[in-house]
Amino acid sequence: MLFGTQTVNSKGHLEIGGCDAVELGERFGTPLYVVDERLIRQNCRDYLNGFRARYARTDIAFAGKAFLTAAICSIMEQEGLCLDVASAGEIHTAFKADFPMDRLYFHGNYKSDAELRMALDKGVGRIVVDNTREMELLNSLAVETGRKADILLRLTPGIDPHTHRLIRTGQVDTKFGLNVKDGSAMSAVRRALELPGIGLRGIHCHIGSQLLDTQAHTAAVRIMVEFAGQVLDETGLAVEEINTGGGLGIRYVEGQQPPTIDQFAADVTGTFIRSLEEFGLPHQPKLVQEPGRSIVGTAGTTLYTAGPIKRVPITEEPGYRVYVAVDGGLSDNPRPLLYDAVYQALVASKADREPSQVVTISGKHCETDTLIQDTRIAEVEPGDILAVQCTGAYNYSMASNYNRLPRLAAVLVADGKADVIVEREALDDLVRHDVIPERLRR
Questions:
Q1: What is the CATH number of the domain that holds 320?
Q2: Are 119 and 234 part of one and the same domain?
Q3: Taking a C-beta distance cutoff of 8 angstroms, is the pair 79, 42 a contact?
Q4: Prior bond of 31 cis (ω within 30°)
Q5: Is 146 domain-assigned?
Q6: Are residue 116 and residue 212 in the same domain, yes or no?
Q7: pTM for the full model?
Q8: Is the domain of 240 the same as that of 352?
Q9: Which residues contact 68 (CB under 8 A, 6 or more apart)?
Q10: Hey, which residues are catalytic here?
Q11: Residue 173 sits in the same domain as residue 245
Q12: Which one, 112, 118, 239, 281, has least CB within 10 Å?
């Protein structure tokens, strides 16, 4: 499968954004994150156009947790998106990139005092309050500093989105939000309206990630609009914003068929508009979406250099398994071990050849570090450049220094040009913050 601007050039090499992947590996080294700028921009435009053509009062906020760098912030600002952040570090990244602070949505189930102060000081547009303790603290800080905090309340709609158990967030038993069904959400609304430092602007939910149909999303939309109707009836407050999160999945492997962005927009806005009528909301609240993976996921490719290749017996059944070791793994992509994420790969230096062998691509870490189990690729040799597809979301952002491997560089490619947007860590970076107490020195 090829994505975005990917093609096979006259040398038989994978090309991304007009750049030869093999030459990228040689120039910048491997492992290497390669990011397709045109595809990211197209996905941003598809979201804005798909939603606003059907419901004009829609904002799209990129979920920065998927992949956030200063350059990505610049692209999102240029494309007219808002930004969903979840920590002081993500706020600081946006600030250093000159992203408009009033277009930030600040999330998290545990925001520290310092983070809340930072959000107020920087003028973050919306703070998405997760719990009543946070709301009380935020009110105190706002009153203390002479500000008013504009908030959304995060709700738990009680929906099981039928995705991997570790990326479900909308069911009843979750650490996130205020439960709609047990009355916690309405109690929080009433309390918010009493607090002088709080401006309740709307409600928010997020039900899960990598969802391959729209049923859970549309169910959540209906519940959220119904709750907004109850708020209007019981308190007189007409909420200004209804944010139903993100979570649209992407196609990692053959057989996965997620909705297109346009189909997703049609289903969500259709349900939203019908629900406004059904539950008697006379006003038109702003609809907010927070996609992450579906904007950057397919735009990312990780390049590795193949190393040792082993043919080993399979213990459970007759036959052999071919292991191809690469120069990265768990530290640059923890998702396969974290929650069974699956990927496809190709030999970038032989992209024009038929996939003729089944191999298991393994990382170099001291762990059962398998990137892809039993995938079919072209005949591979040590030194070949392998390309793992769809690594744009949650790879860079979850990367670590396990086994003290330096974190990877990332390059942004477009129109035959490649620009570094994250520099590769050096070995000295790994010890930069290490301290040897004086008593341990000889």
A1: 2.40.37.10
A2: yes
A3: no
A4: yes
A5: yes
A6: yes
A7: 0.94
A8: no
A9: 85, 90, 93, 94, 397
A10: 366
A11: yes
A12: 112
Contact 342, 356 (CB under 8 A): no
> Measured between alpha carbons, how far is 111 from 104 in angstroms, rounded to an integer?
15
Q: Which domain holds residue 347?
A: 7-36+297-431
Give the Cα-Cα-Cα angle 251, 254, 258 (nearest 5 degrees). Answer: 35
Q: Cα 86–272–39 angle (5° rounding)?
A: 55
Structure tokens at 229: 């109707």
Is 95 a member of any domain? no
Q: What is the CATH number of the domain that holds 268?
A: 3.20.20.10
154 and 265 both lie in a single domain: yes
